């Protein structure tokens, strides 16, 4: 004789063990110590270690930074040095109109930033004005005017430092 059948309890749902990430092939959630899930690696072949993947990415980033540095160096080599001089200072409403002459002593065309300052001011000047020169061809000289407000409205002798 058979007795009443007892209900078989359902198996509990599997709980993830620790932090998870995606399989490198299909994206299925797997533990961090694995690279591929059982579907993508059914034979259990050795998998690349997480440190190998991160090391490859780190080397790639390092190579990219070095390549960008070399390209940047080649792009700006031969531009400048620049020399500049203040050739005129005139009063203007709310500031000064300063005329600057810049010479590019390099082998490539370029522009430079110039710091206009009062040489009688202590240190590196209390309130210098920073202006950008126009494009100057190699070996050429260019003059430009800049309106500056940081040096006040009093007309006086000013100097410029272009780099």
Give the structural class.
alpha+beta
Overall shape: it is elongated
Total number of strands: 8
Q: Sheet bearing the most strands, described?
A: 3 strands, antiparallel
Q: Kindly state the percentage of residues in helix.
A: 10-25%
Radius of gyration: 34 Å
First and last CA, distance: 103 Å
Q: What is the string of helix and strand elements?
A: EEHEEEEEE
**Biggest β-sheet: strands ordered side by side in the sheet:** 3-4-7
Q: What count of domains describes the coordinates? A: 2
Provide the CATH top-level class of the largest domain. Answer: Mainly Beta
Describe the model.
- With 163 residues, the chain is of the alpha+beta class.
- It has 2 domains: 57 residues, no CATH class; 81 residues, Immunoglobulins (Immunoglobulin-like), CATH 2.60.40.
- 17% of the residues lie in helices and 29% in strands.
- It contains 1 helix and 8 strands, in the order ββαββββββ.
- The strands form 3 sheets. It has a 3-stranded antiparallel β-sheet, with no helix packed on it. It has a 3-stranded antiparallel β-sheet with strand order 6-5-8, with no helix packed on it. A two-stranded antiparallel ribbon has the order 1-2.
- A hairpin with a 2-residue loop joins strand 3 and strand 4.
- It is elongated.
- The chain starts with 19 loop residues before the first strand and ends with a strand.
- 14% of the residues are buried.
- The model has no long low-confidence stretch (mean pLDDT 86).
């Amino acid at each position: 004789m058979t007795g009443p059948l007892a209900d078989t309890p359902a198996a509990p749902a599997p709980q993830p063990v620790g932090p998870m990430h995606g399989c490198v092939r299909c994206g299925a959630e797997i533990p961090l110590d694995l690279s591929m899930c059982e579907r993508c690696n059914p034979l259990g072949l050795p998998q690349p270690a997480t440190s190998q993947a991160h090391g490859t990415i780190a080397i790639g980033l390092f190579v990219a930074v070095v390549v960008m540095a070399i390209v940047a160096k080649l792009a700006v080599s031969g531009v400048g040095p620049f020399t500049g001089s203040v050739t005129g200072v005139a009063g203007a409403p709310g500031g000064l109109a300063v005329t600057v002459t810049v010479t590019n002593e390099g082998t490539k065309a370029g522009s430079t930033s110039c710091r206009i300052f009062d040489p009688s001011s202590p240190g590196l000047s209390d309130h210098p004005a920073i202006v950008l020169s126009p494009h100057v061809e190699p070996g050429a000289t260019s003059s430009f005017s800049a309106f500056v407000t940081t040096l006040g409205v009093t007309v006086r002798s000013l100097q410029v430092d272009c780099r």
